[in-house]
Amino acid sequence: AKADPILVADDVSRSFGGIKAVEVEHLEVARNAITALIGPNGAGKTTLFNLLTGFDQADTGRWSFDGQRAEKLSAARAARAGMVRTFQLTKALNRMTVLDNMRLGATGQQGEKFTVALLPTLWRAREKAITEKAMTLLERFKLDTKKDDFAGSLSGGQRKLLEMARALMSDPKLIMLDEPMAGVNPALTQSLLGHITRLREEGMTVLFVEHDMHMVRHVSDWVVVMAEGRIVAEGPAHTVMHEQAVVDAYLGSH
Ligand code: ATP
To answer: Can you tell me the distance from the alpha carbon of 32 to that of 193, in angstroms, rounded to the nearest whole number?
Structure first.
């Protein structure tokens, strides 16, 4: 058991038809650390993210976030509690500007559940503060010059940065990134890794899904390996990579 985990989950399961996509007995995510969740295609990583963040309903399972029971929280409530995630397929609303995408991040609405109808409410409340915060974050992610462009006009890598920036608008304690480096060019990958490390320096907890186990070596404090819905190994990157169960999981998938 970890000293002060921000997330603790037990007996989390989810089946689709006859297939057990997730069957996790126990998961702890250490606070203020970077944890990588890796595993071959179809291992259940995204499904586990969906369950924990209220985007899908678990068949069984209990989990707590930051000391509070969290298994019944909707996605928006989980975000307000401080648990925010990004998506594998970026859902930045393509026909909205970069700045409006950021402003919506402040509402705690996430992913496909974003709605433009929320903006007017936001205006009346805290427009100036929210816009200032959005611009500060856009500068940090070098997207400030793109603020009036449609999100759909950004490159794939820039959209990954926007997703991360937008997730930060609601001041999360735990940020869950689903394949932040997938399809991103090498230069931008380095930049993304730098941003992830900075989040930890600022006191946040990061849990990210990554398909490529070599990618996680430099950036994660702890690696959790999933295969066929289960956690098959965990530990520091340099040791876990060599465990037989991990080698088997990856070899078995090709
Ligand atoms: P990848 O790296 O390919 O995204 P993953 O580890 O994230 O893989 P999941 O996407 O969680 O894996 O999929 C786990 C299993 O659950 C797979 O067998 C997948 O086909 C199945 N699955 C996931 N979502 C659904 C769904 N909505 N309906 C039916 N089956 C699903």
So the answer is: 16
**C-beta of residue 158 within 8 angstroms of C-beta of residue 146:** yes
The answer, yes or no, to whether any atom of ligand 1 lies below 6 A from the CB of 18, is: no
Q: What is the spatial distance between Cα 128 and Cα 138, in angstroms, rounded to a whole number?
A: 15
What gap in Å lies between CA 140 and CA 66, rounded to an integer?
27
How far away, in angstroms, is 20 Cα from ligand 1 center?
10
Query: Would you say the CB of residue 50 lies under 6 angstroms from ligand 1?
Result: no
pLDDT at 254: 46
> Which of 46, 56, 207, 232 to probe ligand 1 with, by most ligand atoms within 8 A of CB?
46
Task: Note the pTM of the prediction, 2 decimals.
Answer: 0.89
Q: Residue 78 and residue 126: Cα distance in Å, rounded?
A: 21
Number of continuous H segments (helices) and E segments (strands) in the chain: 8, 10
Average pLDDT, the chain: 88
